[in-house]
């Protein structure tokens, strides 16, 4: 593991000046980039850095659906979804974060629909919902139809919908750049002023400077010998803020995603404070565990 970078790299070479940096171009990162554009304005330079081409992010593997208590096909409530999420996580789940996720899931799905997501429909034209592992009605009484889906390629459809919207709103992409570390010229107690990344095609090092940095780098299933996760899910994106002791657990900066530590928002100086209001939540359900 690399030591945390405590100094700024030499100025001059491959420096990108941005208003916001999002690390990760899966469902969480792309959604966050769109929200940042909304929050900071159309002229804001929002950069998304990804070690993969965005549409190859692991979100594309999700088939079964994305859950929200819309109640389109039978009665459902976000509180039931919340219960299932906490119980499905063996009560190890951050319950406040789960509450945010389950409440916001409804609005997030409707927002995704408005962005052009091709959900399956009921005969009445509503977003269709089907059963999925761990989704129950009335706190565990029986199964409920909570999963919103686009045939068997829900994640693929989410990625493409969000990517197209990002292009439309002029988010800047840095594809196949592996983020290595945070820029923290003031040391561990100082603000994060950007990130350092390796351009995989050229092996050149780039610095990305911005007043705010958001990590949405997915899970780390590859820590297990047997996993359905892609080879890229090594957890390096989670390790970077953790190693730099910038991992925050304050309620206003808590991750809004249940994927293992995939979305770490942090106060990075004054301007980033307003970011804490940004709903960067991609409401993935708690998956049945292996
Ligand atoms: C087989 C399978 C099926 C699934 N099915 C479902 C389902 O039906 N419903 C459901 O809700 N969930 C499902 N999940 C879980 C779901 O896919 C994930 O929880 C979700 O996609 C995570 O999204 P994400 O944006 O956080 O991460 P990802 O989509 O994994 O994106 C991570 C991004 O971070 C980037 N990145 C990582 N590290 C770095 C770095 N150091 N530098 C630069 N970029 C970096 C990657 O390039 C990538 O763009 C499934 C998971 C698997 C494995």
Question: Describe it for me?
Answer:
- The protein has 290 residues and is α/β, with parallel strands linked by helices.
- The protein has two domains: 15-60 and 160-277, FAD/NAD(P)-binding domain, CATH 3.50.50.60; 67-155, no CATH class.
- It is built from five helices and 14 strands.
- The protein has helices spanning 27-40, 78-88, 95-115, 154-168, 236-243; strands at residues 15-17, 20-23, 46-50, 66-67, 129-130, 136-137, 142-143, 147-148, 172-175, 177-183, 194-199, 205-209, 213-216, 263-265.
- The strands form four sheets. A five-stranded mixed sheet has the order 9-3-2-13-14, with helices on both faces. Strands 1-12-11-10 form a four-stranded mixed sheet. A three-stranded antiparallel sheet has the order 4-8-5, with no helix packed on it.
- Strand 6 and strand 7 (142-143) form a beta hairpin.
- Helix 1 runs parallel beside helix 4 (154-168) and helix 2 (78-88) crosses helix 3.
- It is globular and about 60 Å long.
- The two termini are 27 Å apart.
- 44% of the residues are buried.
- Mean pLDDT is 84; it is low at 1-7 and 249-290.
């Amino acid at each position: 593991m690399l030591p945390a970078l405590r100094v700024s790299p030499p100025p001059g070479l491959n420096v990108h000046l941005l208003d916001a940096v999002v690390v990760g171009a899966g469902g969480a990162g792309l959604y966050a980039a769109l929200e940042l554009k909304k929050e900071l304005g159309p002229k804001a330079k929002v950069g998304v850095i990804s070690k993969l081409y965005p549409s190859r992010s692991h979100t594309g593997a999700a088939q079964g659906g994305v859950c929200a208590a819309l109640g389109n096909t039978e009665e459902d409530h976000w509180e039931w979804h919340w219960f299932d999420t906490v119980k499905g996580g063996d009560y190890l789940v951050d319950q406040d974060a789960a509450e945010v996720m389950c409440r916001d899931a409804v609005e997030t799905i409707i927002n995704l629909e408005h962005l052009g997501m091709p959900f399956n429909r009921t005969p009445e034209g509503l977003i269709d919902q089907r059963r999925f592992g761990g989704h129950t009605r009335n706190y565990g009484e029986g199964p409920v139809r909570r999963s919103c889906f686009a045939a068997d390629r829900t994640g693929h459809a989410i990625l493409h919908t969000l990517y197209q919207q990002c292009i439309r709103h002029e988010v800047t992409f840095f594809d196949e750049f592996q983020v290595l570390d945070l820029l923290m010229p003031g040391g561990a107690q100082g603000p994060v002023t950007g990130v350092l990344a390796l351009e995989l095609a050229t092996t050149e090092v780039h610095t990305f400077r911005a007043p705010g940095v958001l990590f949405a780098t997915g899970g780390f299933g590859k820590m297990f010998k047997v996993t359905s996760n892609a080879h890229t899910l090594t957890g390096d994106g989670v390790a970077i803020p953790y190693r730099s002791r910038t991992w925050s657990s304050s309620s206003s900066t808590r991750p809004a995603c249940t994927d293992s530590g995939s979305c770490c928002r942090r106060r990075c100086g004054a301007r980033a404070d307003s970011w804490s209001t940004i709903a960067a939540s991609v409401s993935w359900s708690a998956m049945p565990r292996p």
